[in-house]
Specification:
The chain is of the alpha+beta class. It is built from four helices and three strands.
Protein backbone atom coordinates (compact mmCIF):
# COMPACT_ATOMS: atom_id res chain seq x y z
CA UNK A 1 0.00 0.00 0.00
CA UNK A 2 1.21 3.49 -0.86
CA UNK A 3 2.29 5.50 2.21
CA UNK A 4 0.26 8.51 0.99
CA UNK A 5 -2.91 6.44 0.99
CA UNK A 6 -2.11 5.01 4.40
CA UNK A 7 -1.41 8.50 5.74
CA UNK A 8 -4.67 9.82 4.34
CA UNK A 9 -6.55 6.97 5.94
CA UNK A 10 -4.95 7.63 9.34
CA UNK A 11 -5.91 11.30 8.96
CA UNK A 12 -9.51 10.28 8.27
CA UNK A 13 -9.57 8.20 11.43
CA UNK A 14 -8.23 11.13 13.44
CA UNK A 15 -11.15 13.20 12.16
CA UNK A 16 -13.62 10.47 13.15
CA UNK A 17 -12.05 9.99 16.56
CA UNK A 18 -11.28 13.43 17.99
CA UNK A 19 -9.38 13.66 21.26
CA UNK A 20 -11.55 12.95 24.27
CA UNK A 21 -13.53 15.99 25.23
CA UNK A 22 -14.05 14.85 28.82
CA UNK A 23 -10.73 13.49 30.11
CA UNK A 24 -10.77 10.82 32.79
CA UNK A 25 -10.71 10.25 35.67
CA UNK A 26 -14.22 11.43 36.48
CA UNK A 27 -15.12 12.27 40.07
CA UNK A 28 -18.30 12.65 42.13
CA UNK A 29 -18.97 15.57 44.49
CA UNK A 30 -21.90 15.98 46.86
CA UNK A 31 -23.92 19.20 47.19
CA UNK A 32 -27.08 20.02 49.18
CA UNK A 33 -29.54 17.76 47.35
CA UNK A 34 -27.59 16.43 44.38
CA UNK A 35 -24.35 14.78 43.28
CA UNK A 36 -22.33 16.22 40.41
CA UNK A 37 -20.02 14.17 38.17
CA UNK A 38 -16.99 16.12 36.91
CA UNK A 39 -14.22 15.28 34.46
CA UNK A 40 -10.50 15.68 35.22
CA UNK A 41 -10.62 19.37 34.23
CA UNK A 42 -13.63 20.14 36.46
CA UNK A 43 -16.28 20.26 33.72
CA UNK A 44 -19.68 19.24 35.09
CA UNK A 45 -20.96 16.21 33.19
CA UNK A 46 -24.03 15.10 35.13
CA UNK A 47 -26.22 16.10 38.05
CA UNK A 48 -28.09 13.42 39.98
CA UNK A 49 -30.71 14.91 42.32
CA UNK A 50 -32.14 13.27 45.44
CA UNK A 51 -34.76 14.02 48.11
CA UNK A 52 -36.48 16.69 46.02
CA UNK A 53 -40.02 17.13 47.38
CA UNK A 54 -41.04 19.12 44.28
CA UNK A 55 -40.18 16.24 41.94
CA UNK A 56 -43.09 15.03 39.82
CA UNK A 57 -42.03 11.42 40.26
CA UNK A 58 -40.83 9.63 43.37
CA UNK A 59 -37.46 11.24 44.25
CA UNK A 60 -34.30 9.18 44.55
CA UNK A 61 -32.86 8.49 47.96
CA UNK A 62 -29.42 9.91 48.72
CA UNK A 63 -27.91 6.41 48.47
CA UNK A 64 -29.58 5.71 45.09
CA UNK A 65 -28.35 9.02 43.70
CA UNK A 66 -24.81 8.39 45.00
CA UNK A 67 -24.70 4.95 43.38
CA UNK A 68 -25.96 6.31 40.04
CA UNK A 69 -23.40 9.14 40.09
CA UNK A 70 -20.61 6.70 40.98
CA UNK A 71 -21.58 4.45 38.05
CA UNK A 72 -21.60 7.41 35.65
CA UNK A 73 -18.10 8.31 36.89
CA UNK A 74 -16.92 4.78 35.98
CA UNK A 75 -17.94 5.05 32.32
CA UNK A 76 -14.50 6.00 30.90
CA UNK A 77 -12.97 2.92 32.55
CA UNK A 78 -15.78 0.62 31.40
CA UNK A 79 -15.84 1.83 27.79
CA UNK A 80 -12.07 1.86 27.30
CA UNK A 81 -10.49 2.67 23.94
CA UNK A 82 -12.48 2.17 20.75
CA UNK A 83 -11.03 -0.71 18.67
CA UNK A 84 -10.01 0.01 15.09
CA UNK A 85 -12.44 -2.68 13.91
CA UNK A 86 -15.31 -0.39 14.92
CA UNK A 87 -14.32 1.77 11.95
CA UNK A 88 -14.24 -1.06 9.42
CA UNK A 89 -10.57 -2.04 9.69
CA UNK A 90 -9.65 -5.54 8.64
CA UNK A 91 -7.96 -7.45 11.46
CA UNK A 92 -5.29 -9.08 9.29
CA UNK A 93 -4.11 -5.75 7.82
CA UNK A 94 -4.02 -3.94 11.17
CA UNK A 95 -1.34 -6.39 12.35
CA UNK A 96 0.86 -5.42 9.39
CA UNK A 97 0.00 -1.71 9.43
CA UNK A 98 -0.98 -0.75 12.99
CA UNK A 99 -3.14 2.39 13.35
CA UNK A 100 -4.04 2.35 9.65
CA UNK A 101 -7.58 1.69 8.41
CA UNK A 102 -7.99 -0.03 5.02
Amino acid sequence: MDRRVAGACVGAIDELMPARRFPPPWSVEEADNYFVVRDHEGQQLAYVHFDNPRAAAKPLTKDEARRIAANIAKLPELLGPVPMSAFGCKADMTRIFPNVCF
